[in-house]
């Protein structure tokens, strides 16, 4: 195994030019070291980017809030621009592991692992984030839903580095919420995780859920019902319909499919209910 310790984005891209499907980028190592330990991953090349300062930033731009892939959960929690322009990410970062993990775990690592149970990924879905990728061949940008393609699978090519994500400016009057359910209140992997953003009268709803399918997904059926002007009294029924249609939970070591469906329904009703108009006032 070849190990390259990169000190700049250029050095990382140069090393990644010869990367294969088996190669890995090492950031905080909180996912990758577990894979090394279990023998699940035996890379031919490891490019260490944990000391690349250029990947660790938060800046407000015309396109929105740009956050470097090397930003840690602790960085997200400390950042005033993140609190202003991507509060869902800060709420999610607070739920990742314990303080020790938050000090190492990066945004890029959470996104590229693409675990269905990841906490930052649903927040990125709800915020309509775009993912910026770089390689020696050039740069490209993908919507986060296009980037996460399946169970721990992404659209990233082996030679590409995730440089940053861009969160578009939040519309006025938007409601946002993040809710995670695990075995304990702290330090547990999610059984169900929800992040959502909703405009007045349900306009532009983006509702993302994790741990209820092989990948993070959006609840398109519920989003469409909200856009049509869903009354509060009809919410529970619409949620049950959407959860049945849009999710594909499984039984696994953490939970059962039945429990995940029931809890997702309850979380959605509880979180969305206060924002909906009663019958007669709904559009
Ligand atoms: C004890 C423990 C508790 C945890 N609890 C949670 C939790 O509650 N919620 C949660 O969501 N996660 C949790 N995790 C998982 C993990 O901490 C997160 O997914 C974390 O964000 C991964 O980031 P990292 O920097 O450590 O990634 P790494 O382990 O360094 O890398 C992860 C993957 O991303 C790739 N990668 C990293 N950076 C880049 C980049 N810039 N460009 C391209 N590819 C890249 C790597 O090649 C690798 O495939 C936990 C892990 C542990 C060990």
Report the β-strand fraction as a percent range. Answer: 15-25%
Total helices: the number is 12
SSE-based structural type: alpha+beta
Q: What's the arrangement of strands in the largest beta sheet? A: 4-5-10-6-7
For this structure, the quaternary state is single chain
The CATH class of the largest domain is Alpha Beta
**Architecture (CATH level 2) name of the largest domain:** 2-Layer Sandwich
Order of helices and strands: EHEHEEEHHHHHHEEHEEEEEEEHHH
- Residues in helix, %: 25-40%
The largest β sheet comes out as: 5 strands, antiparallel
The count of strands amounts to: 14
- The chain-level mean pLDDT equals 95
Report on this model:
The radius of gyration is 19 Å and the shape is globular. With 283 residues, the protein is α+β, with helices and mostly antiparallel strands. A hairpin with a 2-residue loop joins β4 and β5. The relative contact order is 0.11. It contains twelve helices and 14 strands. The protein folds into two domains: 2-167, Uridine Diphospho-n-acetylenolpyruvylglucosamine Reductase, domain 3 (2-Layer Sandwich), CATH 3.30.465; 175-275, 2-Layer Sandwich (Enolase-like, domain 1). A five-stranded antiparallel β-sheet has the order 4-5-10-6-7. It has a four-stranded antiparallel β-sheet with strand order 11-12-13-14, sandwiched between helices. It has a three-stranded parallel β-sheet with strand order 1-3-2, with helices on one face. The structure holds flavin-adenine dinucleotide (FAD).
């Amino acid at each position: 195994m070849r190990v390259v310790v990169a000190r700049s984005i250029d050095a990382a891209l140069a090393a990644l030019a010869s990367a294969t499907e088996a190669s890995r980028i090492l950031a905080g190592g909180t996912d990758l070291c577990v894979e090394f330990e279990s023998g699940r991953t035996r890379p031919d090349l490891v490019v260490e980017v944990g000391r690349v300062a250029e990947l660790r930033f938060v800046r407000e731009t015309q396109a929105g809030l740009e956050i470097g892939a090397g930003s840690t959960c602790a960085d997200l929690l400390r950042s005033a621009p993140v609190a202003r322009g991507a509060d869902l990410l800060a709420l999610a970062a607070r739920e990742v592991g314990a303080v020790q993990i938050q000090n190492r775990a990066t945004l890029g690592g959470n996104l590229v692992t693409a675990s269905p149970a990841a906490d930052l990924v649903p927040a990125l879905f709800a915020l309509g984030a775009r993912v910026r990728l770089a390689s020696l061949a050039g740069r490209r940008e993908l919507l986060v839903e296009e980037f996460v393609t399946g169970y721990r699978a992404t659209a990233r090519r082996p030679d590409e580095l995730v440089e940053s994500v861009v969160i578009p400016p939040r519309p006025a009057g938007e409601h946002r919420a993040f809710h995670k359910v695990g075995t304990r209140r702290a330090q547990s992997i999610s059984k169900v995780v929800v992040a959502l953003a909703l405009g007045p009268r349900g306009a532009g709803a983006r509702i993302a859920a994790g741990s209820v399918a092989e990948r993070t997904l959006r609840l398109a059926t519920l989003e469409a019902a909200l856009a049509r002007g869903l009354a509060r009294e009809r919410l529970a029924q619409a949620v049950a319909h959407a959860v049945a249609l849009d999710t594909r939970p499984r039984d696994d070591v953490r939970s059962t499919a039945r429990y995940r469906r029931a809890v997702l329904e309850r979380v959605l009703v509880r979180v969305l209910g206060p924002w909906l108009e009663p019958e007669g006032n709904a559009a």
